[in-house]
Amino acid sequence: MTLDEIRELIQVVTETGIAELEVQRGDNRVRIRRATRPALHEYVIPAEAGAHRSEHVAEPPVAPSQAAGAAPALDPLSDPALVTVKSPIVGTFYEAPSPGAPPFVRVGDIVKPGDVLCIIESMKLMNEIEAEAGGTVVSKLIANAQPVEYGEALFAIRPA
After folding, report:
1. I need a labelling partner for 129 at 20 to 30 A (CA). Which of 26, 71, 116, 146 fits?
2. Is 154 exposed, middle or buried (CB count within 10 Å of its CB: 0-12, 13-18, 19+)?
């Protein structure tokens, strides 16, 4: 196996989220294992509510790495009263079911458990990301059609 083939296998493991892949060609054998990871839906629920209310209403198209840290004074992730919805997979974030359609949710919308918040496309599969907690959407942290990483914050919700 060539180094490029091994890199391609690593990319497949990363993109699909599979735990282990083993490939054998003749005398060559490669096994790639991922570290174990938390459950698909990861939510941070703080123990106590913070006194400061954070609003993030501007949604400029920014790179995912800049989204959470773009405005430290308005950083919704710093409010311990908020539930953070994180990406369960690597893929591309879409706020609407199709181009030109209205977004699933907007900042200020009230959601209940099971409501679809967005779609993440991964390996040509559309994965609906649903709210597990009800409340008000305080912030959308990713711009439409931007790539997201596993565990990256997508939305901040103030529980009802």
Report:
1. 71
2. buried
Spatial neighbors of 109 by CB under 8 A, at least 6 apart, are: 136, 137
Average pLDDT of each block of 10 consecutive residues along the chain (160 residues)? 80 76 80 56 44 39 42 58 92 93 95 95 91 93 93 92
CB 93 within 8 A of CB 129: no
DSSP run (H or E) holding 117: strand 116-122
Which CATH number does the domain housing residue 49 bear?
2.40.50.100
Unique residue bearing structure tokens 């609003």:
55
Say if residue 116 is in the same domain as residue 142: yes
Question: Cβ(33)–Cβ(20) under 8 Å?
Answer: yes
* Dihedral of alpha carbons 50, 51, 56, 62, sign: negative
> 29 with 48, same domain?
no
Residue-level pLDDT at 30: 81
d(CA 69, CA 90): 20
Does 47 fall in a domain?
Answer: yes
